[in-house]
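Project standup — Tuesday

K.O.: blocked on the structure for the chain from last sprint. Re-posting the sequence here as requested.
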Amino acid sequence: MRRIKIIGIALVPTLTLTLGVVGAGLTTALVVGTPAASAAERAWGTPAALTDERGANTGSGVKVTTDGTAVTVWISGTKDGPQELWGATRPAGATAWSAPVRIATDQQSVSDVHLAMGLDGSATVSWDRFTSDRFDSHSTSALLPGAASWTAPAPITSALFGYDLMLVSGPGGRLTAVWNGNPTPGEDESDVGVFTSDLAERGAAWSQAVQISSGSAYELRAAAAGDGTVTVAWQADISGPEALRVSTRAAGAVAWSVPEVIRNDDASNPGELDVQAAPDGAALVSWSGITSGRSFVYRPAGSTTWGRTEYLPVDEARNSTLAPQLEPDGRVTALWEFEGAQLRTASRAVNGTWSPIRTLVENSEASRFWVPDIGRDGSLAVMWTTFEGDLWALVRSEGTWPKPLYVGRADLHTVGSVAAGPDGSAVAVWNKRLGTTSDYHPIDQVWATATGAAKPTHRDHVGDDGFPDLYARGTNGSLRVYRGDAAGKLPGTADGGTWPTTSTLIPFGDLDGDGANDTLVTNSAGDLYRHSPQRGSVVTPQGPAKKIGSGWKAFDGLTGSGDFTADGRPDLVARETATGDLYLYAGTAAGGLTRTGKIGNGWKNLTIVGAGDLNGDGHADLVARTAAGDLYRYDGTGRGAIGNGVKIGTGWGGMADIVGIGDLTGDGTDDVLGRTTGGDLYRYAGNGTGGIGAGVKIGTGWKSFAGIR
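H.V.: unblocked you, prediction finished:
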């Protein structure tokens, strides 16, 4: 059962403010430069399970094909067997995943699963199938462009006795397998080394294994460039600076280069090896050393020579768990954690010059960053989980970093994968821990979500221009929607028709999931309707509407502020008129509302304001004005509750209306409007940490309206 925190009005003053002078500027909690109201800030869909809760299913990552189709695979069953390999796809532009498809069955155990994306739009999965107590049998299966099912599993005949197999895909569907081991079974270890084999085309036979290095190796990594160049790196079974080696097969060539020692100044064995290749043939090999931190070597496109060992731009970045990313244009972008709470970045130009360091996220409370991913168009996606179990994402598109977006709830065991698609889209797959078997094998469920259409801006109801709008009701029930602009004002208007004077209109978020903000309306009988005009269109009494509730005459103070339950849907706050108790009604997948419980009492004499996200933590907040004119902020927890009140202002008794307008100033933080009893309209800019700045008059002559929301 969900535990709901019931609160009173705990008055904890922090600022003493007067009307017109509200708050002082503080640093924002999430700093990403100036957020752009563009398609780069795409909404994440509601997370959904790809597997049921009846069995253990462990995801093995997600990737995106050249046509934008997301592909994921997972292992069904635990290590005590038997196990199966399953997969699912999410076509580009689709709103849902396909039904799961079985790829391979009747395996005693499955391990080392790898996905390789072909330039022809295909996807190939490889895995180790345990068949005896002596060796593994490597198999592959392909999902061809436009196909609904995977090809029948086929062995990699040249790699029957290898391990640590990697699979990469080049032009024309050519596959290259790289592995450790020896070509024949037995006790003689003299021919142990790194081997490769190729599948020139579908239906052909794998080529004879070619040995490119002798001696045992580990942390084997490989990458294929768009021109067909394949780079393989590994750690030799020795200590010291000669442990890291690399070999390359140029585009169109047959022979591999002599393994080259990557010189580095770390006397300890390198770890966290990573190999990346750009479409034009540039390559990047990076690793972590105990003393030197994160290091890398770079080879420009068209060159056969690796550059000197380089390091991330500042000492604080060298202990990063995130490998630097090779951009399609040859640049190298580094992402690193700083003091456990910030995410920073800098890019190295092809000439070796680093850009200025930029802070993308502050106060993230991240517990684990996932491996970033760069799409073919240069989109870059990074995700992380917080210590509270929240999942966040940041997706760069067209060189622009928008503000981080909340994705959903995870848990402390969550391990996931994110893949960047075209035009700022992204997809994520992760494991949700359900428990363990009697032998203590993890039982996980596979979950997934993806970005869809650009997320509608909070309170942007007319014009789809990225600026929030204000509802103003005339005494005759007429509705005028005042449109925000880049100057932080409300100059334009749209006619919303004439509504019954007994109706209440509540600007709301996208409750039905159609990509457009909705408006909730109650009538004199206490019925509740969801009005859903097309995105960018003004709401009118004649527009599309659906009844979603009744019995609302017992409530007042109906307020939409955003998402209080952290499920990606907007929620409604309602005050019971007779008692002053405050209740939360959570948005549902069906586009309705369900009551979750009481979230406060003692609210009878308060003016309730849906403030949006004032403190920058990704959760909706409330603001309340007391009869004495004091202003308090109540932070949403993301778990269907609100915290204790924090005093953020005094002298607000002269306001006829207070409205949480959203980000009217365009600085990435939500703002507040106030209409005085004399008809002047003031804007109070949020500072991103829960406070609001000094009042700026942006209008006069608003006295004739019955109310604004």
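K.O.: great, moving the ticket to review. Confidence is low (pLDDT under 50) at residues 1-40. The radius of gyration is 29 Å.
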